[in-house]
Task: structure prediction
Amino acid sequence: MRNIPYCLIPPPFVQGVAVTFSAMGNVLSKNFPELDEQLEHAGMHHAARDYLAVCFASNIVLFILFGFIIGLPLALPLGFLLSFFLTVFVAMQQVTFPRVVTIRRVGRIEKHLLPALQDMRVQINAGIPMYSVLSNIAHADYGDVSIEFGKAVDRIGAGEEQLHVMQSIADANPSIFFRRAIMQISNGMHAG
Result:
């Protein structure tokens, strides 16, 4: 699982914690129905219940830790009260983290999208087959756009149909401009 902000649980134990707190993750995931899609768009291929279970366990650890650290110099009940507010702040940060990653990813994709599409147009006008064009874009230096086309090339090379692959990478991408461009390419491939 990708690093979760403010998570003090060591990475080797994260999956075990997710299983232990999966019931709480199920309850919390009902309050965040869009989190599955945000996690997928952020490239964090985990279920929302697992992500929220790890966040919940991490927040329990932070609550206790903050409670004792703040509470020892002050009164212990006051320390745990302040700890509660800090933990709520951290929980909000953790829940919005996939959205922040998605926004950054969209920015990286859209930064390189226009030059990649211009390169693609030149290659198609030169008569290069679509698979070779996709492969060339995947191996060029177009940042996250090259990564997305690399996924498509790998899937097409594994035997999947080009049109289906293009539509599925468009559906899975958070950038609306990338989706529109890929859908236009898919429509052109479908039309011939």
